[in-house]
């Protein structure tokens, strides 16, 4: 296998590591590209291309994350990761860990960790790297990495729901939710929501939002129906689609362009959280993005905009 072939064979793994550390498709792709350039500039052949390249992309991602922290602290409103349609890396032996670590909820929990804790958790807990490899990747001793892993694992476990739903339950609840969404059925939505459900919207200050946050089944159900009615008025189409390994939907404008995405966190037989993303910068990798400002004006004016 040539060096180029080795890199391409490992590209899905490298992207998956970078995305979980950064929560951004664009930044993860840039990190992989920088890793490729360093790979091309290396004259010696490492004993393990996987270990070497994983270490390089991890260090690059840590540096990017540290610089991104300032931008995220100044971010307008709640911050959410960029949606990922499919994870390019597949490993049947770690399928459960890989899927769980992709969810919006997990990525938001990872945001609470320091860059080093986050990198150690991703390499060790998600991808199953040994501590010698983890230590080499983050530039710390094995003992220090073990401590970082313990802290990261504790923080992640504390933030997870006590009882998680299996895939079938998530999909069944999501189907009922989006059916009720299409029908504008407040009672049907309320029945599916946890009493303390939260709805969080991410616009980054670059798109109109009905509300950045809403809490409680009554308020969230009413808000969701309000949005559904406005979407119906201007001909927005809902496409159920798994996002970040969890049930969700992509909303398309009448011209087919991407308008927004929504993901659902399901646990204990109810929807615990709804995440709505309308920031156009975070949707650009999914295709042409709709002019949400124009559509919002059309909805306010009662113009179907067709």
List keywords for this structure.
single chain, 306 residues, alpha+beta, Butyryl-CoA Dehydrogenase, subunit A, domain 3, Nuclear Transport Factor 2, Chain: A, 2 domains, six-stranded mixed beta sheet, 12 helices, 13% strand, DNA binding
Strand and helix layout:
Blueprint lengths: L2 H20 L2 H16 L8 H25 L21 H8 L1 H7 L4 H12 L4 H8 L3 H18 L7 H17 L2 H7 E10 L10 E3 L1 H17 L3 E4 L7 E5 L5 E10 L2 E8 L14 H10 L5
Helix pairs in contact: 1-2, 1-3, 2-3, 3-7, 6-7, 6-8, 7-8, 9-10, 10-11
Keywords: Sigma factor, Transcription, Transcription regulation
Protein name: RNA polymerase, sigma-24 subunit, ECF subfamily
Subunit structure: Interacts transiently with the RNA polymerase catalytic core formed by RpoA, RpoB, RpoC and RpoZ (2 alpha, 1 beta, 1 beta' and 1 omega subunit) to form the RNA polymerase holoenzyme that can initiate transcription.
Give the H and E element order: HHHHHHHHHHEEHEEEEH
Number of strands: 6
Q: What is the number of domains?
A: 2
Helix content: 40-55%
The rounded Rg comes to 21 Å
Strand content: 5-15%
Most strands sheet: 6 strands, mixed
Compute the number of helices: 12
Can you tell me the CATH class of the largest domain? Answer: Mainly Alpha
Could you say which structural class the secondary elements and strand pairing correspond to? alpha+beta
What does the average pLDDT come to? Answer: 92
CATH topology of the largest domain: Butyryl-CoA Dehydrogenase, subunit A, domain 3
Strand order of the largest sheet: 2-1-6-5-4-3
Pfam families: Sigma70_r2, Sigma70_r4_2
Family: Belongs to the sigma-70 factor family. ECF subfamily.
Subunit structure: Interacts transiently with the RNA polymerase catalytic core formed by RpoA, RpoB, RpoC and RpoZ (2 alpha, 1 beta, 1 beta' and 1 omega subunit) to form the RNA polymerase holoenzyme that can initiate transcription.
Keywords: Sigma factor, Transcription, Transcription regulation
């Amino acid at each position: 296998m040539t060096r180029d072939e080795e890199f391409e064979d490992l590209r899905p793994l490298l992207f998956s590591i970078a995305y979980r550390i950064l929560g951004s498709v664009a930044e993860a792709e840039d990190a992989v590209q920088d890793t490729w350039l360093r790979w091309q500039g290396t004259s010696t052949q490492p004993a393990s291309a996987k270990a070497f390249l994983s270490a390089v992309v991890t260090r690059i991602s840590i540096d990017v994350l540290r610089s991104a922290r300032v931008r995220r602290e100044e971010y307008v409103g709640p911050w959410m990761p960029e949606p990922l349609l499919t994870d390019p890396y597949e490993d049947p032996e770690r399928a459960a860990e890989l899927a769980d670590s992709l969810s919006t909820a997990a990525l938001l929990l990872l945001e609470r960790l320091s860059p080093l804790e986050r990198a150690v958790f991703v390499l060790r807990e998600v991808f199953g790297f040994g501590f010698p490899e983890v230590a080499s990747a983050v530039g710390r001793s094995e003992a220090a990495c073990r401590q970082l892993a313990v802290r990261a694992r504790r923080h992640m476990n504390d933030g997870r729901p006590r009882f998680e739903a299996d895939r079938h339950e998530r999909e069944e609840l999501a189907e009922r939710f989006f059916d009720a969404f299409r029908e504008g059925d407040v009672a049907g939505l309320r029945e599916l929501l946890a009493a303390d459900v939260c709805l969080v919207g991410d616009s980054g200050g670059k798109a109109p939002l009905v509300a950045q946050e809403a809490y409680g089944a009554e308020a969230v159900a009413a808000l969701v129906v309000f949005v559904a009615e406005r979407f119906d008025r201007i001909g927005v189409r809902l496409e159920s689609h798994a996002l970040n390994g969890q049930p969700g939907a992509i909303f398309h404008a009448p011209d087919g362009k991407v308008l927004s995405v929504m993901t659902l966190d399901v646990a204990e037989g109810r929807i615990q959280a709804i995440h709505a993303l309308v920031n156009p910068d975070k949707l650009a990798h999914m295709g042409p993005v709709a002019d949400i400002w124009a559509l919002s004006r059309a909805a306010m004016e009662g113009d179907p905009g067709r």
